[in-house]
Amino acid sequence: MVAVDISPNQDGGVLKEIIKEGVGDETPAPGSNVTVHYTGTLMDGTKFDSSKDHNAAFQFKLKKGDVIKAWDIGVATMKKGEVAMLTCAPKYAYGKNGCPPKIPENATLKFEIEMIDWKGEDLSPDKDESIERYQITPGKSHMKNPEEGALVNVHLTGMYNDKVFEDRDVSFSLGEGEDCGVIEGVEKALKSFKAEEKSRLKIKSKYAFKNVGKPEFDIPPNATVEYIVELKSFEKSVNPWCLKFEERIEQAKIYKEKGTNYFKANKYNLAIKMYKKVISFLDQDKVNEELETEKNSLMLAAHLNLALCYLKTDQNVEAKDECNKALKLSPQNEKALFRRGQAHLALASPEIALKDFQEVLKIEPTNTAAAKQITACNNLIKKQLAKEKKLYANMFDKFAQEDKQKEEEKLREQPDVMCGALGEWGQEERPGGRDATAFEKENPNILMLNANGTDEFQNM
Fold first, then answer.
1. Alpha-carbon dihedral of residues 254, 256, 258, 263, nearest 10 degrees?
2. Among 58, 73, 92, 94, the one annotated catalytic
3. Left if phi > 0, otherwise alpha if psi is -120 to 50, otherwise beta: which for 428?
4. Which of 165, 225, 220, 219 is nearest to 200 (CA)?
5. Rg (CA), the chain
6. 202 Cα distance to chain centroid
7. Are 60 and 67 in contact (CB under 8 A)?
8. What is d(CA 148, CA 6) in angstroms, rounded to the nearest whole number?
């Protein structure tokens, strides 16, 4: 085929000639993890490098600065299975300096490249390929990405086994997509999108419908799903550092109210996010005395509500920590002590929990809930003591049995003096070394004392 100029400026810097057609219509998007074979030569045919000589395909991230410009441009146009020849001018290769000793100055290079495969750009937090992006339409590169709290307007098309299960426009604050039925993987991916970008996402169950699935969509547990996501537009989130402290307090009140609404709707994860935002907006040391009181009141409420949310979601260590923070602001706070007691009780520490509940009764003697928890603590302590007593008794019985077995083994290891030589008395063993009597000869197992009429029994 005829070589085609594929350089961005149509300056002849990158020419592409297809040697073998690829399959399908898809080409790798920026950020894709690409796998290729290549052979590089100078214009006179001198080979300077080849992945085939290394017996290993070459992998790199597309358009991330891993390779020369000509590769980023040319490989982005290739389909799976395609083989192409790229002719690369110096400005798109190694420039005026070359790459000594193999590539001279101002060298034009030829690369035969075979596209083997590619994977999408890994957007997952743990880099375990649980969220892969395949870009369809690039967004506005000069714009920033949406941050947590930004109001995003998106179009979602969800698919499982090539069957569409949802197709809709939706607007939500980034981080609160759960309230609109938007899965976690889409939200995390959107933080890497540009405005007007359209991409295909491959999302594993970890960030999709997990081990529950979505029966109404015929999606089984642990299923990998795909989404076509278009970020139509977004409004930037409110940056607390750009606000006066009075404005930050007002914004914190808004998040507190949102958190309370989510809590009432049993959407505890969203409530946790909102209460954390309350704290982040008020995280400033020096404020005037008038605002300090209002700040501490909001902070106390946020810590107490976070503790409650964590208790509801069985995150008891986190609940205890939030109670400790609340007690720094209000040392005799009844709710903080009670919730910390609940956390300790859930963490199987009834003795510590008991102290918290007793402290609650000192503050408010009519708190019947604390009285009931004290009874529960005492019952649990009794059960634990009984269990420990039984455990120790069993341990002592076990140790006694083991000691008995060891003693029996020692006895078995001692020689049996009743076997073998019993009764075979030698002359040296008879008193005075005398000869055996007639009776002793007839009865060799018997040793006669005083057989010779001596005083052998004297002083015995």
1. -170
2. 94
3. alpha
4. 225
5. 42
6. 19
7. yes
8. 38
Instruction: For residue 457, indicate whether it is catalytic.
Output: no
Q: At CA 432, angle to CA 427 and CA 436, rounded to 5?
A: 40
φ, ψ for residue 110 (rounded to 5)?
A: -120, 135
Q: Which residue of the set 58, 68, 203, 272 is catalytic?
A: 68
What are 25's two structure tokens? 């219509």
48 has catalytic annotation: yes
> Tens digit of pLDDT for each residue in 129-176?
999 999 888 888 777 899 999 999 999 999 999 999 999 999 999 999
Active site residue 94: yes
Closest CA to 336 of 350, 321, 348: 321
For 265-283, write each residue's pLDDT tens digit.
999 999 999 999 999 999 8
The token duo for 441 is 């000869």
How many Cβ atoms are within 10 Å of 217's Cβ, its own excluded?
15
Q: Which of 58, 92, 111, 338 is catalytic?
A: 111
Catalytic one of 6, 48, 60, 279: 48
Q: Which of 38, 134, 234, 268 is catalytic?
A: 38
Q: Is 209 a catalytic residue?
A: no
Task: For residue 217, indicate whether it is catalytic.
Answer: no
Residues 6+ apart with CB under 8 A from 81: 20, 21, 22, 23, 115
Ramachandran region, residue 31 (left: φ > 0; alpha: ψ -120 to 50; beta: rest): left
338 labelled catalytic: no
Chain Cα centroid distance, residue 338: 31
Check if the beta carbon of residue 31 is closer than 8 Å to that of residue 135: yes
- Is-contact 13 89, C-beta < 8 A? yes
Residue 103 · residue 175 · CB < 8 Å: no
